[in-house]
Amino acid sequence: MRKLFIILLTLVLFFSFSEAKPKKEELPKRYKEWLEEEVVYIIGPREREVFLQLETDRDRDLFIEAFWRHRDPTPGTPENEFKQEHYRRINYVNHFFGRTTPKAGWRTDRGRMYIILGEPQDLQRYEGKTQTYPTEVWFYQGKTSQGLPPGFNLVFFQEGGTGEYRLYSPVKDGPQALMTSYYGDPVNYLAAYEYLNELEPDLAQVSLSLIPGEGSAIFGRPSLSSDLLIQKVETTPQRLLEERYAQKFLEYKDIVEVEYSSNYIDCDSLIKVAKEPTGVYFVHYSVEPEKLSVSEYQGSYSTTLKLNGTVTNTEGTIIHQFENTISLNLDQDQIKDVSHRPLSLRDMFPLIPGNYKISILVKNEVSKEFTSVERNITIPADDDALQMTSLTLGFQLAVKPGEEGLRPFKFGTSQVYFQSNRVFTKTDNLILAFQVHGLDPSLRTKGELRFTFFKMGEEFRSLTRTFDQYPELPNITETFSLADFMPAHYRVQVSLVADNQEVLTDSEEFDITHSEAIARPWIHTKQLPPPQDNVYTYLIGSQLFNSGRIPEAKVHLEEAFNRQPDSLPYAINLARLYLSLDEYMKIESVLAPFLERTEDPSYELLFIMGRTYQKLGKLDKAIEVFDRAVDSYGLNINLLNALGDCYFQLGKPEEALVVWEKSLEINPNQPQVQKNVEALKEKK
Fold first, then answer.
1. Most confident segment among 60-74, 321-335, 391-405, 561-575
2. What predicted TM-score, i.e. pTM, was given to this entire model?
3. What does CATH list as the number for 534-683?
4. Is 403-529 a domain of CATH 2.60.40.1930?
5. Residue 330 in contact with residue 301, Cβ under 8 Å?
6. How far, in Å, are 274, 322, 475, 531, 536 from residue 278 at the CA level?
7. Pairing of strands 458-466, 448-455
8. Do 403-529 and 265-383 fall under one CATH topology?
């Protein structure tokens, strides 16, 4: 499963779905009706685009499930109240609004607005009048959470007195469109309003403005804000929707299990790069899911999170992969605390120089929800070059001298505590943490760091520091009080300046909130071995091998194995490298001890040793090892084909024929094996 996951992840993340052309006309009827009739007024443009790119009914069904789940106001209950109300509205408009027109009710203006807004709080009808056309005035209130006015009207009228009720626009139609016998100046809205006011004063009040109290009648001009209101109403479902889940569905539908695919949740994240004194760069990451779902049993709460990550280069080759299982068990006091605070998953890993895409997938096994992070990063190649790492913004700093191990987002002895969304209060301090590498003596003496704050794009504050004020170079931390920072959007820029010339610069944005307090994250992390530990030699060697840098990889993997010769993972990776170099004698010396003392050897250990014995001409040993692999892991074409080769080399064609034929039963599309079988049959 792990190999399958890696293959699928590589294919999905590096295939540009934007090249897929939507083929609406090819949709099966039931999906076309769903898209163009049932949800046409509430689906967002990105959702629509994603749906049109799906190629199977399975994916379409899963997307539709995700579509409704994403709108469910009470996801913890069996009913989806939004979905139920939506279809009630469709049934209502089809029953009542399609009577006077050949159109289906949902296609009419009244039907569209009813589906979007629901039942009006008040409805006034003007019917049976000789001097005004049949008109309805719908009044809504309590929609401010949707970005609409506290109260507003929508007007529908039968143009010419027949057919469907059309949505009225004060600007495009004007009061004259509501009257049957107005013969005044068609562009004199004030005269038309005054005439209508004599006939129907209440209707006249909404003819120039749909927003009560706007006062347009005083000036005799129709309200432009009324047309803006109509546009805002029609786009309400899209404006209130976070469509990112649709993109994630498209990217991960073939990776995560079916029960997860419709349950994407958003997250905040942070990925930064910093260099340790050993010269190795480490990637620090934080993932903060928007919610944490747990199961409850007898007063205790638990969940299991599965984290999988891959690092791929620009060619799509997987350079590094990692996985972690996080089991959380909480009591009642802890769950009360956690329920009001986000969970932040933090870790770090070494990475060789290059340009990469990092992809992190987090699955909650209790709720079957998933979230993900994708980011492009660069690890500098020139260790001696002048460099500034990107800024990390925190709200608290803790100095931990004497701690030998590594921790994510720790710069020297300073541990930075942060929230990935970079939101602060006026009572917070702002911590800036970063590194400057490659400083020559001249820059150390003459260079300065300039800290500049911009508020809403305008320079707000500036401060300059010299490098002798930072005793832990290349690690730099600076603390700023936010007491006189008013709530707003800010950008902080750090520049290395020498001789009044800007040499390096980096910036980061943040917000100051009106809130007096923020629920800070509950952090799940662990202390890692110190940077000199052998595990990092092994990881760097494995990454070099995956990158095709074999000579460098050999140095690191041999060093890691020689320092820890009892480690099977170290031995396996070194054997893989020797296999690529056809150094089979070295493979035997590395892996044979593990094969002898391991009761339940892994498939990879057995297969590599079988191949090694085969290449060394020790065919009986090879067959013994391959048979052991078959007994433990079952038949597959690789094992069968290797066994057939061994039997054939030993001069046992009948045995070779049996296993090769078995291989063809599993996969007939093997031209070389088929050729071998036919040749043996001809010799019988």
1. 561-575
2. 0.79
3. 1.25.40.10
4. yes
5. yes
6. 12, 22, 14, 7, 10
7. antiparallel
8. yes
